[in-house]
Amino acid sequence: MLVLSRRPDSSIIVGHDITVTVEYVAGDDVCLQVKGPEDLQVRRVEELEVAEILSKRGRPWDASSMYVLSKRSRPALLLNGEILVAVQSVSNESVRIGIEAPPHVLIYREEVYRQMQDANRGALNDPSGDLVGLSALRRQSPPAPIP
Length: 147
Fold this sequence. Notes:
Helices cover 24% and strands 35% of the residues. It is of the alpha+beta class. The termini are far apart. The protein has one domain (2-118). The protein has 3 helices and 9 strands; from the N terminus they run E-E-E-E-E-H-E-E-E-E-H-H. It has helices at 47-56, 110-125, 130-139, and strands spanning 2-6, 11-14, 18-26, 29-35, 42-45, 76-79, 83-91, 94-100, 107-109.
């Protein structure tokens, strides 16, 4: 399970098209907003279902250390039937969010994801980038074989 600390108005990108944003933290309660494609399925699951989902993945449920969305009700969110989002702990204005997802689902802090997107856009728009150097190398004759 990946655990990330977030503050209100900060987000986590799940896959490349789902955004989980911390709206507010108050006491033991956390409000999360989930945005994604139109066909995104978000289901609230209770503690027993969370334990069952984790056990199917070979992960134990530890009620003493896993807190989900509120210490009182312990629900979690299940995204598209395969991604489990649960609050691990709450302190001051910060929340630790645990995400259990299949290996093919990438998870990013929003600020890191945005930096990667900006770097990729910059690389595509840079005419003097590595691709120009690569094409120059291809035009050179191959190295002589070593005797």
